[in-house]
Structure formats: C-alpha cells, structure tokens
Amino acid sequence: MYERLVRDGQQPKALIIACADSRVSPEHITQAGPGELFVCRNAGNIVPPFAEMNGGVSSAIEYAVVALGVRDIVVCGHSDCGAMKGLMQPGALTDMPNVATWLRHSHAAERIVCEAYPDDIDPKDRLRALALENVVVQLAHLRTHPSVAAALARGRLSLHGWFFEIETGTLHAYDGRRFVALTDDGALPVAEVSVPRRAAPDAGAPVAAE
C-alpha cells in the first residue's frame, strides 16, 4: 500500500481542518485510509483570515486547493473543546499567552454567543453553542483566502462545517443555517455549494461595434 502511495502520489479527497484535541481524529471519524485526507489540526480548529504573514494553516489551505486540487474543505469542531473553554474563561490562559493570542481568531464566535444567546443559558449549552458558532466563523475566514475564493467562484470547491460529539460519536453538519445530525440514509449537508458565479456577468462578453 505504501509503495503505491509513493508511486502514485497523494490524491486526497478533501482538506479537513480539525482541532488538535487527541480525542478527535478526522481519519477515525471518516474511516479514511492513508492518502485519502489532507489534514490540518490546531487548537480550536481555527482558520486565520488571509494576511500577508505566512502561517501553517494558510499554507496548508493554499497547497490543498492549488497543488492537490481538493474539491471539499471541512472545518470540524467538537464537544468539550479546551480551546473554547479558554475563550469562556480567559483567566485560565494567563500562563499560555500564545494560546490566548491564537484564540483571538475565535472572538467573533464568543461575541455572537454573548449577544445573540440568552444570558441564563446553561454553561454546558453555552460551551456547545460557542463551539458550533466557532465553526461558522472559521468558514467565513476560509472565504478570505484567495485560493478558496477563486475555487468557489469557478465551481470547483465546496465548504463544509462539522461538529463531532465525542460522548455519543454523532457527527453534525452545517447546512448554511443550522447544524443537523447525520444519518446513514441522509444526504450530507453542505455549508456552501460549489456553484460557478461571476459578480460581473457581462465581463468578457463581445463588445458591439459602434
């Protein structure tokens, strides 16, 4: 098998951006074999918005889309996420300044939960809501990357938001409005379908002679 992987090269079906949590393995969740997934893991399954400063996540996205030609990108969050707990309790990050700085990319999700959800929501439900909203925020960040934006416009890429419930093994997918639990006989919801589009539909059309 490994000889074939070297001979034929890698041809992953998707890029999965997941949390570094040791309990969450994209390959195990999807039952994928070697060479089938291009995986990028970090604390909080975060996608920094595109910027001139180079970073590992941004480089992985660009390579997956441009060099490997993946047709799907998945941002996968999960229950009982330590990074999301850190957002809820910033005092716990006093001795982890790098983690605190990294989590600034999830501040929009924290703001959403603080202002759009009830004040008296149960702490466990608040943590779950924060993890779900964080996936949606990171999907928005994905669209700022030039390689992703171009592939979406060309109809060659679809974006997915997943949430893995560790305690039940249930996988939820974002349909563009809410997360729904996946079933064996149900279709896989897509956060953003790959549809070719042009904001300037007349661009490139022949110009009539005067």
From TrEMBL:
Cofactor annotation comment: Binds 1 zinc ion per subunit.
Entry keyword set: Lyase, Metal-binding, Zinc
Stated family: Belongs to the beta-class carbonic anhydrase family.
Designated name of the protein: Carbonic anhydrase
SUPFAM superfamilies on file: beta-carbonic anhydrase, cab (SSF53056)
Matching Pfam families: Pro_CA (PF00484)
Single Gene Ontology BP annotation: carbon utilization
SMART domains referenced in this protein's UniProt entry, alphabetically: Pro_CA
Catalytic activity: hydrogencarbonate + H(+) = CO2 + H2O
Superkingdom of the organism of origin: Bacteria
A GO term, aspect molecular function: carbonate dehydratase activity
Binding site for Zn(2+): 19, 21, 78, 81
EC number: 4.2.1.1
PANTHER family assigned to the protein according to its UniProt record, in alphabetical order: CARBONIC ANHYDRASE (PTHR11002:SF76)
Cofactor(s) listed in the protein's UniProt record: Zn(2+)
